Amino acid sequence: MRIPIIAGNWKMHKTIKEAIAFVDDIKDHVKNTDVEVVLCVPFTLLQSVKEATKGTNIKVGAQNMHWEESGAFTGEVSPLMLKELGIDYCVIGHSERRQYFNETDETVNKKVHAALKHEIKPIVCVGETLEQRENGQTNAVVKDQVIKAFKDIESSKVKDVVIAYEPIWAIGTGKTATPEQANEVIYQIREVIKELYGEEVYTEIRIQYGGSVKPNNVEEIMNQEDIDGALVGGASLKPDDFVKLVNF
Ligand SMILES: O=C(CO)COP(=O)(O)O
Asked: Which residues does the Swiss-Prot or TrEMBL record annotate as the active site (predicted)?
């Protein structure tokens, strides 16, 4: 049984004060849920959010990390540093990082290896541009990203990875892939995992959808057979909306 996972990706938003107030607002309303609840927050908020969520079922994630444990990498944060804070998840390869910060399939793969080594669960993002979709390349593009992200990852570790399918044209645009479109690509991603790792892993791995998920469309998305959760940007910043997403 795959436990659905609703993760907020706060991107570059919120001060410590705002983050603590957010957790205080939501924590009593996300208790009796059958979904795993995760907040992926900026580095500066990790420690405060970790403390504020103590004793709740809310897990905490980062949004990026380096693959080395330490070294001369000015401005970077290592998996060891995240592990020390008790961080559960890390978003890896978000399209904004691929687009603005030179993230490549190769660095994504290194980060997936590093996260798993330190028992941080990677949320690996894949997705196509509008142009790629219009040219009928969606499945090929996403398949290539998945194969490269999982290069040399051992089968026994794959169930700890979450994949987030986020079509780039649906991020922050208000345009959602239809639930059927999202399910179709996610089904294909699961088939790729089956080709790579076989039947058992294929049934276990969780695959989320991300891109303009809101309280008014979450239920329809979550009702799709192959979709195991959502990675939510904008709507995860508002306590009321986030509570509605988690209790869809
Ligand atoms: O990028 C996203 C989550 O990682 C999606 O962002 P929005 O929910 O704001 O479209």
From this structure: 94, 166
